[in-house]
Specification:
The protein is α+β, with helices and mostly antiparallel strands and 447 residues long. The protein is built from 13 helices and 24 strands. A hairpin with a 6-residue loop joins β18 and β19.
């Protein structure tokens, strides 16, 4: 059963603390678009940086790419998107609303929310028809069929069309991967569940090219490795699963697909798909472009079309999953008053937290702000830090708990005497005295 209360609280927190805002809000908004605020953009960047570090810079067999969002129209004809990238659409003649035909059982009738579309007596649903999800636009001043292009619905095709360029320019040898992080666009019929299904989103994709004889082994390695990545960053327990697709779910070219899924408040949702795509993509682009995209192995004197394993993750969906996992409300004893209080906290993994540490002077006198500012400036050279001297220190702790900041550092009267500060840990709320000269090393170690 969907837990709407948790999502309502999380959406409210995201806006209040500057994680995510509705797109074009002052003009009434634009459905399916979202803006990432000061904390949100840092969290999203940290997710992408963690993914890039773990999959590209720390490996010798993967290189990066940043391909154009606008691509030649034939690319999407070769990939099959122009003809087949569709959802079934139905209209209600009564309320003028539109729905995905395959999601009617989980949709609400706008006039009778307790009913599904078609169940309310006044509903008049049309027959389902195919709706292409790609956004159309035109290159140049004349809008005609010859100048029509699309905003890319995925980042993968930019990798496939650059396969030969990468091989020729880097001399990298199979097996190897090409990684890309970038924006994709899909004209969703019914965007929903906050940022989970939106019209503009970011993907983190790898196309891993390997010998056909070893592709099944690489598929297993990648599915296990990608699942572990989410576990290592805090998605654990019975809310995370790796689901293998049944035969009737597979694309016609797929030799195997697994989804990393997370149990959101409304139910299971896909974070990443790991697909064994065989040689379909390179073959298609060879056929449509007339270019030779085979690979020649100098050592074995063998020419072949590589098979492709594709781990494709949603950066924005991952962000939502990390927020859902981290969000908690708990009854605690207030650290200043001793009274019972409700604490809202985001227990984000330190690698992902937008701000790593916050620095406070206990009061605005006796040189505390100056000493706190010096510590802030020193730590700022190494990671994201926040300085705050407004309000009671307990309230400042609460604000940082809601922002997901792992550590708070308080400069007090004792600091001037022995050069120590109070270091507070977010999850346990435990406090300890730490020497100023040990702060940087200790924080880096714990992060």
């Amino acid at each position: 059963m969907a837990d709407t209360t948790v999502m309502e609280k999380l959406v409210s927190l995201c806006k209040r603390r500057g994680f995510i805002f509705p797109g074009s809000e002052i003009y009434g908004g634009l459905n399916g678009t979202w803006d990432y605020g000061p904390l949100g953009v840092e969290l999203l960047r940290n997710i992408k940086n963690a993914w890039w570090h773990d999959n590209v810079t720390s490996r010798e067999d993967i290189v990066g790419l940043d391909s154009a969002i606008l691509m030649q129209r034939t690319v999407w004809q070769a990939s099959g998107h122009e003809n087949n990238f569709t959802d079934p659409l139905v209209d209600c003649k009564t309320c003028k609303s539109r729905f995905r035909a395959d999601q009617i059982p989980e949709s609400q009738c706008p006039r009778k929310p307790s009913k599904h579309p078609g169940e309310f007596g006044e509903c008049q649903l049309t027959e389902a028809r195919k709706f292409n999800l790609m956004f159309k636009t035109f290159v140049g001043p004349i809008e005609e069929n010859a100048t029509q292009v699309y905003l890319r619905p995925e980042t993968a095709q930019g990798i496939f069309v650059n396969f030969k360029n990468v091989v020729d320019s880097t001399r990298i040898k199979v097996p190897f991967g090409i990684a890309q992080i970038g924006k994709s666009f899909r004209n969703e019929i019914t965007p929903k569940q906050f940022i989970f299904r939106s019209r503009e989103f970011e993907q983190m994709e790898i196309e891993f090219f390997c010998h056909p004889g070893s592709s099944a082994e690489w598929y297993q390695r990648w599915r296990d490795e990608r699942f572990k990545w989410y576990q290592d960053l805090g998605l654990k327990g019975d809310k995370l699963r790796l689901r293998e697709h049944a035969a009737d779910e597979l694309s016609h070219y797929s030799q195997g697909t697994s989804d990393v899924e997370y149990l959101f408040p409304w139910g299971w949702g896909e974070l990443e798909g790991i697909a064994h795509r065989g040689d379909y993509d390179l073959k298609q682009h060879m056929q449509f472009s007339g270019k030779d995209l085979t690979y020649f192995d100098d050592e074995k004197k063998e020419r072949f079309i590589p098979h492709v394993i594709e781990p494709s993750a949603g950066a924005t969906r991952s962000l939502l999953a990390f927020l859902c996992e981290a969000f908690a409300e708990e009854t605690i004893t207030d650290e200043e008053s001793g009274k019972q209080d409700t604490r809202t906290v985001l227990r984000l993994h330190p690698r992902l937290a937008p701000v790593k540490a916050a620095v406070f002077p206990l009061v605005k006198k006796d040189g505390m702000p100056e000493r706190a500012m010096a510590i802030y400036k020193d730590l700022q050279k190494h990671f994201a830090v926040f300085y705050d001297e407004k309000g009671a220190v307990g309230r400042r702790y609460r604000r940082q708990d809601e922002a997901g900041t792992p550590f708070c550092i308080t400069v007090d009267g004792q600091t001037a005497q022995d050069q120590t500060v109070t270091l507070r840990e977010r999850d346990s709320m435990k406090q300890e005295r730490v020497g100023v000269d040990r702060l940087k090393g200790l924080l880096l170690e714990r992060m």
